[in-house]
Amino acid sequence: MTKRGLLLVFVMLLSVTLMACRGVVQLDDDAINQNIPAMEWFPPNVVEEVNVNDLSPYTVVTELLQVGLLVVENDQGHRGVYSTAHAGLVVPLAANMNYTLRFDPVFRGYIDAYNVLEDTLTVYDVNGDIVIAEGDYQTATVQGRTEVETDAFGNVISREYFETITTLTTEDFDNGITEATVVYTRVDIVEGGRTVIDPPTTVYEHGDQFESVRYPAMDLTPFGLTDHEGKLIGDVFYVYNPDGELLSTIPIPVGGTVTMDVIVDGHMLYQTMTQLPDTADDYDVISGGSKFLLRTANVDLRTGEESVIDFDYVVLSSVSFFNEDGVATHERVRVHAVESRLRIQHTVKEIVIDRNGNVVLDLSGMSFSTLWRLDDETIYNADTRILFDNDLNPVLERLNGTTLVLHERVMIVPHEGLQGVIDYRGTVLVPFIFDWLSDQFYNGTAYGLHENGRWVGTNLEGDIVEFDEEIVLITPGVLVTFDLTPDPDSGLFHARIVNYMDEIYDTMDLANVNNFGNLNNSPFHNEVIVRFNGENGPLYVSVLMSDPE
Length: 549
What we know:
The chain is mainly β. Helices cover 5% and strands 54% of the residues. The radius of gyration is 32 Å and the shape is flat. The chain starts with a helix and ends with a strand.
């Protein structure tokens, strides 16, 4: 039977099952399709600006490329701090100054500026904004912190940035004050600036409820109870209605006997498998030669009422099954069947059940664990390597050596010793004329090695440009090209910074083609930095990027 036929049979069986289960949420073929997980992919960031930072007027004293900061000095011995992201000084040149570039895991870095004559310290961030004003300090430190808000599925909704600034002046220390001043700030990443905030701890006044926020509430909307909340305190789950009134208290099954414990469609389903003495006559299943009591239960979260389900399966694992609104209405479980009180362990079944334990879909032979969604119209079976449409009609077989480029929804495919690009329906987008194609696509373009041995750029419209030089990839979408033979007069290597279709960002002349790169991924700047050796000293190529839209 074809997969399409299987799906139709599933839906027909499902309709019969649901007619007998009034009140249970319906499951249709659209819900089945949308629960096929999507392959995770991240499109390359958008290239916003490319700069060649020529510091030849200065001597580089210290560099911290993972922050994009350089301590530089002019011919008079004055020092300042240069930022590759800003393509200029963020701390101006001054005499009698020493700088320490400090790495921070959140904000990537800070600049400690020490005035040797005045014996004072100023602390700047990577943008050159003052974080700690100039002063004579016994202690002066800054530490970044971030907080994220996530939805019920763990997706990040928002992110905030904070600093903890700790200072103790030498004057206070000399006067016997040993406790430092701690200030907390919220940092505005977009607009800039810092706002002093209260300490990130709960301060209680007389009459407040102590530790009232210790047990955070869980939104039960994604689990079938709109605007209801739950709190897990110890091994007890407390359920509250939208008005904050306690509806039920439900003991949570714990221990090694529990094989399933999930919340679905406003109910809790759990299963326990408890070993019994070998002499027991009243048992449900024999597994591995031992007798067990198998109990599957349904608990209504609104009332706490529990009922035992007739369910002849031993649950191995479970995954929530969501409707189009993101609500868990069913559960997909991998099980061993129980037949004549024997656990059938040589075959793992995959089924979808409702809150009453009714099997509404038998996925045996079509495991969701091998199905992945490539786009809105394409499903991929990783086991058979076949691409299907949404009706599970086979469309294309993925050949050995094929590379999926998920963010472009294409595949790099080998054919007769060469490579080309096709879409998920098999349409040839880039002809098979390449010895090798990079999977580092950017905005519908890529680069590779032509069958004639030349480096080329191409796009999904089939256009091709040839490079006369060697190339180095800086970041997806940005290449550096250079001649292997230096200019006979200057002895320099001429280099160009281009996109895949040979459109020029900038040019430079190099003493050699060696390079060293790093990534500055701070909240302020998403930047790739590559250092080359120029005619008069180091050149720093900075590629500033933003998140893809």
